Amino acid sequence: MWVIIEEVRKSFKILLAYPAEVVFWIISPLLWVIPLVFQGKALVGAFSSTAFGNLAGTDEFIPYVLIGAIISTYMFSAVWSMGNSFRDETYYGTLEHILSAPVRPVFILVGKGLYNSILSTSFVIVQLLICVLIFGLEITVIKILPIFLFLVLLIIGLYGIGFMAAALTLMIKEAHGLLHMFEYILFLFSPIRYPVEVNPITKTISVFIPLTYALIALRGLLLNIEFNFWKNSIILLGIDCAVVPLGLIVFHYVEKRTKSKGTLSEY
Amino acid sequence: MKQNKKGIKGMVLHYLRAINAENIKEWKIELTYKPDFIRQFFEPFVYLFPYFLYGFALLGGRYSEHLRSITGISDMVAYTFIGYLFIGFLNTACWAMGFSLRKEQWFGTLETIFVAPVPRWVYVAGMALHSTCHQGLIMLIQAVVITTFFAIVLQMSGIFVTLVVVLLMLLGLYGLGIIVAGLTIALKQWWVVSEALSTLIVVVTPIAYPLAVLPVVLRRASMFLPTTYGIIGVRHLLLGEELVVSLPTIFLRLTLILIVWLTFGMIVFLIMDRYGRRKGSLSIY
Fold first, then answer.
1. What is the per-residue pLDDT for A129?
2. Which residues does chain A have within 8 Å of residue B96's beta carbon, measured at their own beta carbons?
3. CB-based contact B46 A24, cutoff 8 Å
């Protein structure tokens, strides 16, 4: 437990050495929405679209993409930050030290996951507050608990994927490109910017991505769109149960393999 | 006099050789990481498709009457595609050039290359050359695939002028790349600078929408960017978009912008370089 806490503490210390990053991560998801707002205005001449409503359940595309952008913070954090967490240690020259410490590496990994979860949740809360105060998004108190439930279910599933991303980096080193690619595939096939029903391929692939169910549920709660509460939560729970042990097994296997092959210190 | 001329020629050749050496070194490093190299050719499609799908979701199809009424083009796919195709060079400036020095720092070779007998800008110019070749290749593949897949018809008669517009835009963006590279020396966390700048430029540049939909403040800000003139110029020449400023004005402003940005970029870079060495922060992470 101390290892996990110390890992979280260390990561926060490093983050606070670069305060510009904190501001950037809070603002950027909101900035990414702006081109979509202008594109929508240019294409339909208004801030609502009937065609969009037929697919998404709401005509108003701005709150739809805004929620997508905010929740995608978790996806970026899980894939990008978790994937690069061990690569960063390589760059700092500390990877060999932490992996040869008398603790199980999986605890360090969980520590990194916990740090990223806390950080992303803080960003999401600030972003939601900005939306409430500036864009007039309404969140009733009674909805906070189910929102929290879906966020937790999403975080667990995404960090399972994050563990695999961390293993990938240990194995092929310069994995930032592949992580980016993976991140953009999730981005393309999840209903972050648009309803996946717009294309049969996106609709089919989105079924396998936890973000899909979380976004359906969270948009349902925040924008009053009809959705099946139990179906979405059970599917998310099922994905979590499968992905987290799989992520840990993959990481354990890869970490052992890199140690036995002696490639840990390679760039 | 003759000897002086020979000296200048020799120096220029020396710099050009160094620029090319940097270019080749980058290709070699990239080809070492093959999966990443291949990935870079697919990435632009993954970037582009969400904009198409978002457009399809909004319109319930490919064509927009409203877009036609403000730009003269109704095809959302062609309109968005041309915008995103050329904004790829923004990544070249912000990421590849800006990232160049930080990467050397990670590799532990920054101090080594900084003591080489060439000015520092030669190094950044080498990165610019490499990134332009690489990005140009990626864009060519992207252009062929997307125009074929979506049956987009371009006005090929304007291709030469288009290339001149792109070249001017690119040189202006190099100024930005040099600024980012310079700031990297002092600020270290290069990617925050790169990402913030590129995000702001993407918002203000009329990539997937015309200038007409931007609020007045942003419209004015966009007038200082080479990407604005580059993209509206190229879209006018290749798709026939109605222009808000004339073509000669586009050329004039692009030329002015590239002079200002390149000069400003060089000044920032030299100041940051001197600052970094005086403070001894060159080797600090």
1. 84
2. none
3. no
Which residues does chain B have within 8 Å of residue A36's beta carbon, measured at their own beta carbons? 54
In angstroms, the first-to-last Cα distance of chain A is: 30
Closest of A77, A83, A152 to residue A115, by C-alpha: A77
CB–CB contact B209 A35 (8 Å): yes
What is A5-67 written as a DSSP string? HHHHHHHHHHHHT-HHHHHHHHHHHHHHHHHHHHHHHHHHSSSB-HHHHHHHS-SBHHHHHHH
Confidence check on the interface: ipTM exceeds 0.90, yes or no:
no
Distance CA A171, CA A173 (A): 6
d(CA B95, CA B127) in angstroms, rounded, equals 11
3-state SS of chain B?
A: CHHHHHHHHHHHHHHHHHHHHHHHHHHHHHHHCHHHHHHHHHHHHHHHHHHHHHHHHHHCCCECHHHHHHHCCCEHHHHHHHHHHHHHHHHHHHHHHHHHHHHHHHHCCHHHHHCCCCCHHHHHHHHHHHHHHHHHHHHHHHHHHHHHHCCCCCCHHHHHHHHHHHHHHHHHHHHHHHHHHHHHHHHCCHHHHHHHHHHHHHHHCCCCCCHHHCCHHHHHHHCCCHHHHHHHHHHHHHHCCCCCCCHHHHHHHHHHHHHHHHHHHHHHHHHHHHHHHHHCCCCCC
Among candidates A36, A44, A174 on the partner chain, residue whose Cβ is nearest the Cβ of B36: A174
Q: Give residue B285's pLDDT.
A: 54
Distance CA B114, CA B120 (A): 7
User: Which residues touch B276 (CB under 8 Å, ≥6 apart)?
Assistant: B185, B186, B282
A55 with B57: Cβ contact below 8 A: yes
Model confidence pTM above 0.80: yes
Q: What's the full length of chain A, in residues? A: 267
Residue A255: Cβ within 10 Å count: 22
Q: How close does chain A come to B7, measured CA to CA in Å? A: 41
Average of per-residue pLDDT across B53-63: 92
pLDDT, tens digit (0-9, with 9 covering 90-100), for A133-171: 877 777 777 788 888 899 889 888 888 888 887 777 777
CA distances from B70 to A144, B219, B241, B273 (A): 43, 15, 9, 46
Across the interface, do A187 and B200 touch by the CB < 8 Å criterion?
no
Of B197, B202, B206, nearest to B250 by C-alpha is: B206
For residue B67, which residues of chain A lie inside 8 Å, CB to CB? 42-43
Read off the tokens for A248.
């840990």
